[in-house]
Amino acid sequence: MTTGSGISIRNLSKSFGDTAVLTDISLEIAPGERVVVIGPSGTGKSTLLRCLNFLDRPDAGTLQLGDLSVDAKTASRAEILALRRRTSFVFQNYALFANKTARQNITQALIAVKGLSKADANRRADDILRETGLTARAEAYPAALSGGQQQRVGIGRAMALDADLMLFDEPTSALDPEWVGEVLDLMRRVAEKRQTMLIVTHEMQFAREIADRIVFMSEGRIIEQGPPAQLLENPQDPRTKAFLRRVS
Ligand code: ADP
Ligand code: MG
Fold first, then answer.
1. CA distance from start to end of the chain
2. Using one digit for the tens of pLDDT, what is the confidence trace for 51-92?
3. Which pTM does this prediction carry?
4. Would the ipTM clear 0.95, i.e. be above it?
5. Is 44 in the pocket of ligand 1 (CB under 6 A)?
6. Which of 1, 170, 196 is CA-nearest to residue 87?
7. Any residues with CB less than 8 A from the CB of 149 and at least 6 apart, and which?
8. CA-CA-CA-CA torsion sign (197, 59, 8, 63)
9. What domains are defined for the chain?
10. Comparing C-alpha atoms, which of 122, 197, 208, 117 is closest to residue 159?
């Protein structure tokens, strides 16, 4: 069983001013597939994720998510909203509402994005709080939570949306080392549901464990990709080899 849809990314390009940040990215992700993106910083990994829900608008290319097809050049407001409803995003810096409790950060998304009633949103939030181990912290504000707890709220909020595709942008990079393990454990549990996931991370051991495929990017292009064992142990491109030497 899988959770979510596949996505086809075709010929995606994005520039900021004169700087090409993504060049002709094509990537197929199957339903339930867990894909990890690695690569040097400044290479366009965040921009790629942000283009997939039009937080950054791509200049060209098409996205197909389930039966929804969106062309960057002609995308309507309605198509962009539909795309956003079908994706969820976990940010490096959690991006929680500081003036809302853990529970309210989850229910707000359910009410605003999924149109749930307050009662239904609270019921769903109870399940999510339990699943993320946050029941005892439900009424706490982000400032009173540890970094690990804050990011578990961020992941819980994304889980609650039942998105076709979950996007994670370096979800453990802002954490003190002591909190990294619990956040990776929660992501493992999400991955076990065969939820379609696209994850940018520098946690190589985690990537090796949970990824069906690892994609290496450099300077706005996909350089090579393959199953973890192949990409990590037998990289073909000199840029991949150099990067892996630096991070391992
Ligand atoms: P990565 O996530 O791989 O570190 P990013 O996608 O954040 O890379 O950035 C890729 C490049 O795009 C960098 O050179 C960055 O400075 C540039 N960039 C990202 N966002 C913007 C923006 N909103 N405006 C201008 N340049 C940007
Ligand atoms: Mg980034």
1. 34
2. 999 999 999 999 999 999 999 999 999 999 999 999 999 999
3. 0.96
4. yes
5. yes
6. 196
7. 102, 134, 137, 140, 179
8. positive
9. 7-96+164-247 (3.40.50.300)
10. 197
